[in-house]
Amino acid sequence: MNTSASCFVAETSTPLTKEDGTFRYTNRFLTETAPDPELVYLEWKAQIEAFRATGLPLHHLDSHHHVHGWPAIQDVIVRLAEEYGTTFRALTTLDARRDLWVTERFSDQFYGDGVTRETLDALQPGGSIEVMVHPADMDDTLRGVTSYLAERLVEKELLKSYQRPEWWA
Questions:
Q1: Strand pairing report for 60-61 and 87-88
Q2: Taking CA 116 as the corner, what is the angle to CA 3 and CA 168, rounded to the nearest 5 degrees?
Q3: What is the pTM of this model?
Q4: Per-residue pLDDT tens for 122-150?
Q5: Considering all CA atoms of the chain, what is the largest pairwise distance in Å, rounded to the nearest integer?
Q6: Helix, coil or strand: residue 83
Q7: SS3 66
Q8: Which residues contact 30 (CB under 8 A, 6 or more apart)?
Q9: Which tens digit of pLDDT belongs to each residue from 28-75?
Q10: DSSP characters for 99-137?
């Protein structure tokens, strides 16, 4: 599921959205009052069902800014993963449910100041790992929805030129 502003825009404000219809919870969600978990469940379930209606296979569940690991609502992602027989992005706040992680490890070190060859070189073999990356080409839409802009171009160029170790799949 995607909790970014670009998905499922509501026509009016609800407990989960702002007046413009975008999702209320941003990367600063931990400083905000938690939403009703049942409303989150219904919204995420609707998003999953909309995705399933495309006919594409559901591989795993995810959320923007890792909101699914927010302790106030993390039971929702567990409930949905179990309901749909799938997994979700690994997060330390959901360590007790490693059985539902899509990978065995997750790294968010390749971000901001960590966008370096050294960060990638420091990844160790051993089990599956998801490495968070945000490479992109710049356009007006992206400029309008994020402040993480120049870094995306640096990531893209570094990832294109990086000689990965043999242990990487």
A1: parallel
A2: 75
A3: 0.76
A4: 999 998 999 999 999 989 888 888 888 89
A5: 51
A6: helix
A7: helix
A8: 70
A9: 777 777 888 999 999 899 999 999 999 999 999 998 888 888 888 999
A10: GGBSSSEEE--SSGGG-SHHHHHT---SS-EEE------
